[in-house]
């Protein structure tokens, strides 16, 4: 190997992402699955991953709500329907049913199953203290696989290492 090739190889190795931190702020099906798929993909590539559930993202780890998430039909430009139509009664339920049907065809795990897969793979799952307090939640309201409840400062401290990326969803 020549010196230039060796330098390129060491540069590639030195800049490889080693840790991905995801901040999930909304618990729509499309946001939850985006975070879960990306966190799981990171683990499959040997990259550490963590998900910080904040504000409405907390619904994805609330025992009573996690299997009742919906697809956003109002204000979602990817739906390709007028906002007024998206707000009609039953439209969100219909879109949610269709999304879940398509995910079943791909053998996607349910939210509960995916959380277990993530936890078992070593992905850390964190609740946001501010949001937990704001919504008057208790630890027993949240999934058993939760690694804990952190302040945003604690979460940022977890990002304080080389080759760590944060992604807000």
Quick structural overview:
It contains seven helices and five strands, in the order αβαβαααβαβαβ. It has 169 residues and is of the alpha/beta class.
Question: Rg from C-alpha positions?
Answer: 19 Å
Number of strands: 5
CATH class categorisation: Alpha Beta
CATH topology: Hypothetical Protein Ychn, Chain: A
Biggest sheet features = 5 strands, parallel
Which CATH architecture is right? 3-Layer(aba) Sandwich
Shape: globular
| Class inferred from helices and paired strands | alpha/beta
Molecular structure report:
- With 169 residues, the protein is α/β, with parallel strands linked by helices.
- The chain has one domain: 3-Layer(aba) Sandwich (Hypothetical Protein Ychn, Chain: A), CATH 3.40.1260.10.
- The protein is 42% helix and 15% strand.
- It has a 5-stranded parallel sheet.
Please tag this protein with its features.
single chain, 169 residues, alpha/beta, Hypothetical Protein Ychn, Chain: A, five-stranded parallel sheet, 7 helices, 15% strand, globular, disordered N terminus
Topology:
Layout (H helix, E strand, L loop, with lengths): L2 H12 L4 E6 L4 H16 L3 E6 L29 H4 L4 H15 L5 H11 L2 E5 H6 L13 E3 L1 H7 L5 E5 L1
Parallel strand pairs: 1-2, 1-5, 2-3, 3-4
Helix pairs in contact: 2-5
